[in-house]
Prior knowledge:
The chain is an alpha+beta fold. It is built from five helices and seven strands, in the order βββαβββαβααα. 30% of the residues lie in helices and 32% in strands.
Amino acid sequence: xxxxxxxxxxxxxxxxxxxxxxxxxxxxxxxxxxxxxxxxxxxxxxxxxxxxxxxxxxxxxxxxxxxxxxxxxxxxxxxxxxxxxxxxxxxxxxxxxxxxxxxxxxxxxxxxxxxxxxxxxxxxxxxxxxxxx
Length: 133
């Protein structure tokens, strides 16, 4: 699993501190990814042994923001304006989307209709979850 290592300055938008991740850097983790990207991160080497799980949020142009929650900044001893060392890797074990299984009575006719199945697959995870609920 490739690890992206880079230095960046913690910026802030509104009340949300973040690191900017360029399109080229994000592409090194997952080429063409356009939705929130599940990642494992370390900032200035913290935490050890297990990295934090979070999502990088897309900006629409291939770039992402890696938001740094308070717990991340405290543990890494960082604040807005600091230049930090970031280690980021794609979290292949992350499971998003509906947590409910699709009942056979719904799945069979949905899959039988190619257009309906494609429309269902194009839905955002929260919408799929609501439908299955």
